[in-house]
Recover the amino acids of this structure.
């Protein structure tokens, strides 16, 4: 795996026991580092990255030994370490890094597995040595369950770094599967010819969880966990399409808490946030499992009721919500009571697209607030928003 190199020696040449390299690489190392380059050369491939990890750990290990005997280094202190070849140190380092490393020769036969690769594949280095790497690194497409293309053979044939396709599953020796990700790169000998390939991979389980978590956060409200307005608009658009095909109606309820700003200002945001979380849970409890409740922003919520038979079905939900949310509740030792103003728009009577339904339900909610609060009202076609900017601000702020 590693080209022959001269052994380095290190000795303290100053009173501070700083360790210095006494030479440079006499031959090109794999991964593209040129002859005569210092160990800290450029990192352009995975092989370079591993190579530099090896060099760094070797350097730090020698410096650690040097620090154990300041201010001068006794040659006997260094004796145990200076006799370690670069190849031996490479083996030690590769077994210490967190990624799995599998190396193959030009024919695709396994010539090395580090400890992590042994753990992930279920094959020991001794057992895997000389086997076709497809037996050891058996990957399938997680979606189609078809055998995956060998990244190492592609790296050799195309003479370039090849990234593993997303969704690859490694079939371990015991038959169990594990999601993996990363890439493969060709290894070059001192003459620049391809001498094999290195596959560097790791368990992608945590990566997948992180991606799923980020996807969830992008579509859900951080405080209540409800869908945010982006996801709500997507679902509303889908509900309109389904209703159009099936000849059904869609109801959209725009909800706003009455006097929430006073509670928030009087008792603090911690109380206000807990109130919003409880209100969110109450709204969800009052609708069907097939309905969607979204936090639109601040103390505003939207409830989407897809494929209803009659518009009065939405009125019954509103009455249930008003009754539920009007009950006194205790938060942080404080007894609180709120009201709920609701505006309703119906597809197709009050709009044929998602934006129109939201705007018209919002308009109906404003009218509810203007005419007494703690109630609900259907949008009327002749009832376009007529509130002035002052009254609109007043309605929003309470």
């Amino acid at each position: 795996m590693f080209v022959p190199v001269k052994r380095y020696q290190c000795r303290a040449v100053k009173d501070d026991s700083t360790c210095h390299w006494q030479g440079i690489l006499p031959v090109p190392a794999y991964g593209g580092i040129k002859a005569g380059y210092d160990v800290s050369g450029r990192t352009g491939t995975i092989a370079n990255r591993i190579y530099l990890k090896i060099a760094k750990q070797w350097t730090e290990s020698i410096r650690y030994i040097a620090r154990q005997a300041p201010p001068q280094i006794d040659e006997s202190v260094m004796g145990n370490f200076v006799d370690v070849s670069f190849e031996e140190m490479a083996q030690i380092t590769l077994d210490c890094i967190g990624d799995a490393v599998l190396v193959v020769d030009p024919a695709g036969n396994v010539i090395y597995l580090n400890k992590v690769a042994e753990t992930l594949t279920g094959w020991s280095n001794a057992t895997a040595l000389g086997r076709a790497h497809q037996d050891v690194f058996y990957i399938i497409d997680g979606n189609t369950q078809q055998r995956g293309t060998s990244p190492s053979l592609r790296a050799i044939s195309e003479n370039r770094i090849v990234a593993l396709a997303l969704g690859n599953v490694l079939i371990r020796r015991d038959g169990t599967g594990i999601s993996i990700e990363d890439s493969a790169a060709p290894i070059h000998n001192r003459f620049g010819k391809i001498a094999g390939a290195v596959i560097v991979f790791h368990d992608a389980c945590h990566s997948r969880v992180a991606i799923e978590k980020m996807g969830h956060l992008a579509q859900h409200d951080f405080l209540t966990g409800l869908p945010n307005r982006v996801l709500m608009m997507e679902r509303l658009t889908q509900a309109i399409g389904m209703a159009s095909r099936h000849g059904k109606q869609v109801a959209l309820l725009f909800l706003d808490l009455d006097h929430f700003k006073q509670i928030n200002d009087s008792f603090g945001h911690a109380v206000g946030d807990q109130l919003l979380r409880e209100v969110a849970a109450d709204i969800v409890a009052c609708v069907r499992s097939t309905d969607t409740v979204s936090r639109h922003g601040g103390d505003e919520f939207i409830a989407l009721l897809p494929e209803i038979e009659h518009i009065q079905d939405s009125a019954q939900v509103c009455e249930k919500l008003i009754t539920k949310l009007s009950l006194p509740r205790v938060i942080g030792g404080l007894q609180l009571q709120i009201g709920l103003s609701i505006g309703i728009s119906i597809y197709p009577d009050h709009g044929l697209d998602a934006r129109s339904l939201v705007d018209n339900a919002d308009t109906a909610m404003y009218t509810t607030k203007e005419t007494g609060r703690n109630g609900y009202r259907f949008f009327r076609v002749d009832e376009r928003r007529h509130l002035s900017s002052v009254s609109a601000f007043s309605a929003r702020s309470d």
Summary: Residues 46-67 form the longest helix (22 residues).
